UniProtKB/TrEMBL annotation:
Chain ranges passing through the membrane: 55-70, 77-96, 102-119
Top-level taxon of origin: Bacteria
Keyword hit for Heme: no
PANTHER family for the chain: BLL0914 PROTEIN
Keywords carried by this UniProt record: Membrane, Transmembrane, Transmembrane helix
Lineage of producing organism: Bacteria, Pseudomonadati, Bacteroidota, Flavobacteriia, Flavobacteriales
Protein name according to UniProt: DUF1304 domain-containing protein
Length: 123
């Protein structure tokens, strides 16, 4: 169970590193292809806002990667649960307020990580 949980933790961290890159460094280029429903004329004016959002995604990725490096097994679970919980809440809110795809891409892997962490911890 722990190996599967760590897989999902790493997956969510990699996704958020991708979001960081997309929002901080590729907002006016690659992001236009990813966020096709976003009005094309708004990419340039929202560049600094997207970069700020990307920074937050980077913090989430850093916390998840940090959780994989912690030696104490209990603290490793606590830290991973905290950051996966943050991603889940953000994914639920984004799925509700912006697009259901956000729930699928962001929250679902985080929820699976939480489930496998809890199964490992309590079984």
């Amino acid at each position: 169970m722990l190996l599967i949980a760590k897989f999902f933790i790493a997956l969510v961290a990699l996704l958020h590193l991708y979001f960081l890159w997309l929002e901080m460094f590729a907002w006016t280029t690659k992001a236009k292809k990813v966020f096709r429903k976003f009005p094309p004329d708004l990419f340039e004016p929202t560049k600094s806002m997207a970069a700020n959002q990307g920074l937050y995604n980077g913090f989430l990725a850093a916390g998840l990667l940090w959780s994989l490096l912690i030696d104490n097994p209990l603290w490793q679970v606590y830290v991973a649960l905290f950051f996966l919980g943050c991603v889940t809440v953000a994914g639920i809110y984004g799925g509700y307020s912006v697009s259901k795809k956000i729930f699928t891409v962001q929250a679902t892997p985080a929820i699976l990580g939480i489930i496998f962490l809890l199964l490992h911890h309590f079984l």
